[in-house]
Amino acid sequence: MNQKYQVLQALAESKVVAVIRGESAEEATALSRAAIEGGIRAIELTYTTPHVADVFRALESENVLLGAGSVLDAETARHALLAGARFIVSPYFQEEVAVLCNRYGVPYLPGCMTIREMVRALEAGCDVLKLFPANSFEPSFIRSVNGPLPHVKVMPTGGIHLGNMKDWLDAGAVAVGIGSDLNKAYRSGGHAAVVALSQNYTRKSVE
């Protein structure tokens, strides 16, 4: 199995991807470490976080799959790969990012909302598509998409929480992206609150 599909398999096995947005590199690092302690095995470090490369360096020794999110162009994608990202995520499909990721055998998960966008991303070599924002859809949307496009794999992100994540997974989501819950937990209860919430997500994903 090549490196790209090893990463895709790891994402599918993790079921939960923590989307980390920090107001600083220090906050993002602390959030990530708490999520990892709580059992989450896949972390998406967003490029909206200041000095995000420092977060990649801080986490490079952790036994976790690191990816980059909020990637808007090929230059940022290349920076992320050099920083240690093993998958790239963006809020919409960007052809130049797809070309770069294909060149280096790295999974690219672009945000898609329509069948047209999904087909375009598939034709560009994307294996998993991010449904974003997922709170604009119902979990049954995946089955509707899989009618005409049975091979499409979807990772819903945006509006995913403990109350609906299992619905999405049961509907066929390859994994779910969570984020705002972690930030709220961190700001209200710090490290321990994020660890506890991450444990709940991890348990829920295997029920």
UniProtKB/TrEMBL annotation:
Which is an annotated GO molecular function term of this record? 2-dehydro-3-deoxy-phosphogluconate aldolase activity
- SUPFAM superfamilies from the UniProt entry: Aldolase
Q: Does the keyword Lyase apply?
A: yes
Give the E.C. number(s): 4.1.2.14, 4.1.3.16
Gene3D superfamilies linked: Aldolase class I
Q: In which pathway does it act?
A: Carbohydrate acid metabolism
Keywords tagged on the record: Carbohydrate metabolism, Lyase
* InterPro entries in alphabetical order: Aldlse_KDPG_KHG, Aldolase_TIM
User: Is Lyase included in the keywords of this UniProt record?
Assistant: yes
Family as reported in the entry's similarity comment: Belongs to the KHG/KDPG aldolase family.
Fill in the subunit field for this protein: Homotrimer.
Q: Which PANTHER family match?
A: 2-DEHYDRO-3-DEOXY-6-PHOSPHOGALACTONATE ALDOLASE-RELATED (PTHR30246:SF1), 2-KETO-3-DEOXY-6-PHOSPHOGLUCONATE ALDOLASE (PTHR30246)
Name of the protein in question = Bifunctional 2-keto-4-hydroxyglutarate aldolase/2-keto-3-deoxy-6-phosphogluconate aldolase
